[in-house]
């Protein structure tokens, strides 16, 4: 409770700066929005859409968050499906259940692990954490696409989803940077992220080892996408709707 | 270091999060682990069936979770065996970490009987929504249907307000006495309209929820009873159903009418499309009806002149195909006719032909239908007087002729005997009726007689040029008798005489006047009777005038004189083929009619004129 009060005080102190303009790339999000609406059955109220190349386009924070949440939800859906597909196709009977052992490369980032911790953390820090996690996944996603392409009999469903996730992740990163620019302008932290070193294991000659490395990576991806989705929904309710979704 | 021991255990026997294996052995095992709100979770198990063991022993649950790259050292025991009910373990929020792998194991008397690994975000199954209610939206104009809005509250323990968990809901409804629930699509909001409920029915509604992105639904809420207001008595009894049936019927009817109209208007064209007319075989320039019904002369005439006239019977009808007669082929011409060969300069060849077995050249058909009837020797191949038979007949005739010559003393009368009705070539001895294309009668008899006086004079005997065949080259093939006269050298023929005349008469255009023929004759005045007419006639033209034959035949004696003046041979030849510039030279003296017309061009007689003459 205390924390929430303090948080509230904080948030009212700040001034929301004027909305920034959008790059043309980010304005392609409306198309994704439509797709997401179909997927998620979310009745999003008519969002103002910035035409490509518009200079003085103003998008409110609410819209930014709405779009970010849609993106993160989409990414989590894709990664869940991808993991299930991979598990069904390659991991059956191989004893990959030992995922309890696996560790994700983003575990080093100290992210909140339950609701209390998430509520206690400052939203700026949480935003930064989200950014760090997203950045940490840039490299693994890129290599995932490459390696899945090179896989023997790479199923098209997995490959297409990997490609989609990689692209959406980049977009979400851009969106988050915009949000951060709006919510916490000024000081820009150094680009911190955790390095992924799992590429050699993805390229192992031994098929079992290689498949396990894939399994591990996809499992971590599913978990991290759920984490980000949760954080963003929490932040949206907190920032935009004042904890009253 | 106990985790090192435990890890192999995990490696070997850890269960997948989604696998709830049913172990029939009766041991205690996990049934379900569940987190309703992503803040706590609980696990349930079954005690199992124990055979004959009174006290199964204490069952314990141990858990272990990994935190920050390292496993906790120890398996910890379940913090709460009570709150979640019997045979369960409840982990409150302090023990719950999201996105962290957990492993739990069940032990009975210290022995591990079951193990499971999972993460908390994977086992979320929310509680059912609460507070269902409905409101009437509207009633249809017919008073039969109504729409309602159903509302509910999210489960209380799910922190939806703060956005920690996002739920979606699924509503199901059915009529009270139905058994099958109707499902609606999942919605994110906590109220949803239900359309088209009948006013005279009662409905049941229930809702369940699940975390978005998950697959598993929570339990169903309590059932909500919807009792709609009663139908007003003024309501319509029956629903309006779109008259699909009528529309279909009328549509088919209209289409059928249009189709029939189309067919009737384009009847002819459709008929042409479906059944294209098969072209009847036709020879260009020749009327098929004439072939069927016309007289022989007309047919032959037309066949002869088709090359020249080619009447435009069917030229503009593209459907009609014509059989093209190839009459200008020189190869065929040379091969086609025995007469040619007989008349050829190659005397020896012709001799050989006569003596030799006949070859197949020029053999077109064995039958000339309806026209010719002959009896031949059994040795003859064909029944008709075709070229095929001719060589054989020639042979026979030649022999006979020779015989005749040899047996001059034999009764000449016999020569003429059979030829009363059909004067023809010799072979009188054999009593062969000579098939003739025409039959000239009366004069023949007389004509034959003086001719026959000299049996050796073959020319005298033969009064008629029987056109027995038409070669593809277009020449007229005369009967063997004529041929004999024309150029055969059967018995003994003075070759010199022949060659002399040959030289004179080798020309392409081979119709002769008497005068020309006489020249040939005069050259060899002393040619014996058996001398034949030299093959002076160019083989290209195989028509021979009777007159020429008679004159050329080399009668040293009688018939040679002044053929125009006297009438030793009242013979006539019907012309079946008139070919310009060729033609048959008639012996005009034999004809009863004034002959000026005929002598106009050296004996060239047209068909019309001939028809006038003949009966």
UniProtKB/TrEMBL annotation, chain A:
Taken from the record, one Pfam family name reads Hormone_1
One annotated GO molecular function is: prolactin receptor binding
| GO annotation (BP), single | prolactin signaling pathway
Q: Specify whether Protein transport is a keyword of the entry.
A: no
Places the protein is found: Secreted
Where would you say this protein principally sits, based on its record? secreted
Q: Which UniProt keywords apply?
A: Disulfide bond, Hormone, Lactation, Metal-binding, Secreted, Signal, Zinc
Task: Give the GO cellular component terms, alphabetically.
Answer: extracellular space
Amino acids binding Zn(2+): 73, 229
InterPro entries to which the protein is assigned, alphabetical: 4_helix_cytokine-like_core, Somatotropin/Prolactin, Somatotropin_CS
- Signal peptide residues are 1-46
Query: Does the keyword section mention Metal-binding?
Result: yes
Q: What Gene3D superfamilies is this protein classified in? A: 1.20.1250.10
Q: Which family does it belong to?
A: Belongs to the somatotropin/prolactin family.
Q: How does it assemble?
A: Interacts with PRLR.
Q: PANTHER family this protein is in? A: PROLACTIN (PTHR11417:SF5), SOMATOTROPIN,PROLACTIN (PTHR11417)
Name of the protein: Prolactin
Organism of provenance: Ursus americanus
Automatic annotation (TrEMBL), chain B:
The protein's UniProt keywords, in alphabetical order, are: Cell membrane, Disulfide bond, Endocytosis, Glycoprotein, Membrane, Phosphoprotein, Receptor, Secreted, Signal, Transmembrane, Transmembrane helix
- Membrane-crossing residues? 242-264
Q: What is its main location?
A: membrane
Q: Which residues form the Fibronectin type-III domain?
A: 128-231
- Where in the cell is the protein located? Cell membrane; Secreted
One MF annotation (Gene Ontology) recorded for this entry? protein homodimerization activity
* GO cellular component terms, semicolon-separated: cytoplasmic ribonucleoprotein granule; cytosol; external side of plasma membrane; extracellular space; growth hormone receptor complex
Gene3D superfamilies from the UniProt entry: Immunoglobulins
Pfam families annotated for this entry? EpoR_lig-bind, fn3, GHBP
Membrane topology category? Single-pass type I membrane protein
CDD domains per the UniProt record, alphabetical = FN3
Source taxon at top rank: Eukaryota
Protein's GO biological process: endocytosis; growth hormone receptor signaling pathway via JAK-STAT; hormone metabolic process; insulin-like growth factor receptor signaling pathway; negative regulation of growth hormone receptor signaling pathway; positive regulation of multicellular organism growth; proteasome-mediated ubiquitin-dependent protein catabolic process
**InterPro entries for the chain:** FN3_dom (IPR003961), FN3_sf (IPR036116), GHBP (IPR025871), Growth/epo_recpt_lig-bind (IPR015152), Ig-like_fold (IPR013783), Long_hematopoietin_rcpt_CS (IPR003528)
Q: Residue ranges of region Disordered?
A: 406-426
Q: What residue spans carry the Polar residues bias annotation?
A: 406-423
Family recorded in the similarity comment: Belongs to the type I cytokine receptor family. Type 1 subfamily.
Q: Which PANTHER family match?
A: CYTOKINE RECEPTOR, INTERLEUKIN 5 RECEPTOR SUBUNIT ALPHA
Q: What does this protein do?
A: Receptor for pituitary gland growth hormone (GH1) involved in regulating postnatal body growth. On ligand binding, couples to the JAK2/STAT5 pathway. The soluble form (GHBP) acts as a reservoir of growth hormone in plasma and may be a modulator/inhibitor of GH signaling.
Q: How does it assemble?
A: On growth hormone (GH) binding, forms homodimers and binds JAK2 via a box 1-containing domain.
Which protein, by its recorded name, is this?
Growth hormone receptor
What is the organism of origin for this protein? Ursus americanus (American black bear)
């Amino acid at each position: 409770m205390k924390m929430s009060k303090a948080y509230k005080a904080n948030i009212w102190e700040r001034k929301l700066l004027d909305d920034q303009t959008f790059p043309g790339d980010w304005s392609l999000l409306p198309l994704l929005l439509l797709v997401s609406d179909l997927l998620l059955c979310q009745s999003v109220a008519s969002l103002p859409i910035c035409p490509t190349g518009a200079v003085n386009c103003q998008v409110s924070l609410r819209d930014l968050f709405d779009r970010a949440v849609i993106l993160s939800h989409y990414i989590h859906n894709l990664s869940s499906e991808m993991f299930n597909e991979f598990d069904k196709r390659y991991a059956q009977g191989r004893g990959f259940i030992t995922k309890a052992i696996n560790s994700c490369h983003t575990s080093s980032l100290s992210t909140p692990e339950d609701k209390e911790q998430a509520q206690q953390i400052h939203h700026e820090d949480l935003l930064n954490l989200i950014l760090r996690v997203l950045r940490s996944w840039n490299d693994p996603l890129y290599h995932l696409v490459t390696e899945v392409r090179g896989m023997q009999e790479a199923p098209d469903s997995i490959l297409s989803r990997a490609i989609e996730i990689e692209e959406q992740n980049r977009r979400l990163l851009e969106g988050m940077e915009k949000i951060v620019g709006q919510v916490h302008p000024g000081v820009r932290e150094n680009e911190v992220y955790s390095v992924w070193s799992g590429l050699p294991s993805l390229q192992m000659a031994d098929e079992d080892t290689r498949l396990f490395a894939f399994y591990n990576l996809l499992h971590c991806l599913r978990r991290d996408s759920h984490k980000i989705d949760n954080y963003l929904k929490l932040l949206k309710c907190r920032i935009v709707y004042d904890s009253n979704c | 270091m106990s985790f090192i021991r435990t890890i192999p255990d995990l490696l070997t026997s850890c269960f997948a999060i989604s696998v709830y294996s049913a172990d029939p052995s009766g041991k205690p095992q996990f049934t379900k682990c569940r987190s309703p709100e992503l803040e706590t979770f609980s696990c349930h198990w079954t005690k199992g069936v124990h055979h004959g063991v009174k006290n199964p022993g204490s069952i314990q649950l141990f858990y272990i979770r990994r935190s920050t790259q390292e496993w906790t050292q120890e398996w910890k025991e379940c913090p709460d065996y009570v709150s979640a009910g019997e045979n369960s373990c409840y982990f409150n929020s302090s023990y719950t970490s999201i996105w962290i792998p957990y492993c739990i194991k069940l032990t009975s008397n210290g022995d591990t009987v079951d193990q499971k690994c999972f993460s908390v975000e994977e086992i979320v199954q929310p509680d059912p929504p609460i507070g269902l209610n409905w409101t009437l939206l509207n009633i249809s104009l017919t008073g039969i249907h109504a729409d309602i809005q159903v509302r509910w509250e999210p489960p209380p323990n799910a922190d939806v307000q703060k956005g920690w968990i996002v739920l979606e809901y699924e509503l199901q409804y059915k009529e009270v006495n139905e058994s099958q629930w109707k499902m609606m699509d999942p919605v994110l909001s906590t109220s949803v309209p239900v359309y088209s409920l009948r006013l005279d029915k009662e409905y049941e509604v229930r809702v369940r929820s699940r975390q978005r992105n998950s697959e598993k639904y929570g339990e169903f809420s309590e059932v909500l009873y919807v009792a709609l207001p009663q139908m007003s008595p003024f309501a319509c009894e029956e629903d309006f159903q779109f008259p699909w049936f009528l529309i279909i019927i009328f549509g088919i009817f209209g289409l059928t009418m249009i189709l029939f109209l189309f067919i009737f208007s384009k009847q002819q064209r459709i008929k042409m499309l479906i059944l294209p007319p098969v072209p009847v075989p036709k020879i260009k320039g020749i009327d098929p009806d004439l072939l069927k019904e016309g007289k022989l002369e007309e047919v032959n005439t037309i066949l002869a002149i088709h090359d020249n006239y080619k009447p435009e019977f069917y030229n503009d009808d593209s459907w009609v195909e014509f059989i093209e007669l190839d009459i200008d082929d020189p190869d065929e011409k040379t091969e086609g006719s025995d007469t040619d060969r007989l008349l050829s300069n190659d005397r020896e060849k012709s001799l050989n032909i006569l003596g030799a077995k006949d070859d197949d050249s020029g053999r077109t058909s064995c039958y000339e239908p309806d026209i010719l009837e002959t009896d031949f020797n059994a040795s003859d191949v064909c029944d008709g007087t075709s070229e095929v038979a001719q060589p054989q007949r020639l042979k026979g005739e030649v022999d006979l002729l020779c015989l005749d010559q040899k047996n001059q003393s034999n009764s000449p009368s016999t020569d003429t005997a059979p030829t009363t009705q059909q004067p023809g070539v010799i072979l009188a001895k054999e009593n062969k009726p000579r098939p003739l294309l025409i039959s000239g009668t009366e004069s023949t008899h007389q004509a034959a007689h003086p001719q026959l006086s000299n049996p050796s004079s073959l020319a005298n005997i033969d009064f008629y040029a029987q056109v027995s065949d038409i070669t593809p080259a277009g020449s007229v093939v005369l009967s063997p008798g004529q041929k004999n006269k024309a150029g055969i050298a059967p018995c003994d023929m003075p070759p010199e005489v022949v060659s002399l005349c040959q030289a004179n008469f080798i020309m392409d255009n081979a119709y002769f006047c008497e005068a020309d023929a006489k020249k040939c004759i005069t050259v060899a005045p002393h040619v014996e009777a058996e001398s034949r007419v030299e093959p002076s006639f160019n083989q290209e033209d195989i028509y021979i005038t009777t007159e020429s034959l008679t004159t050329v035949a080399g009668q040293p004696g009688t018939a040679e004189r002044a053929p125009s003046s006297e009438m030793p041979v009242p013979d006539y030849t019907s012309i079946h083929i008139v070919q310009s510039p060729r033609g048959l030279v008639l012996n005009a003296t034999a004809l009863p009619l004034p002959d000026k017309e005929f002598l106009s061009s050296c004996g060239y007689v047209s068909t019309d004129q001939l028809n006038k003459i003949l009966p």
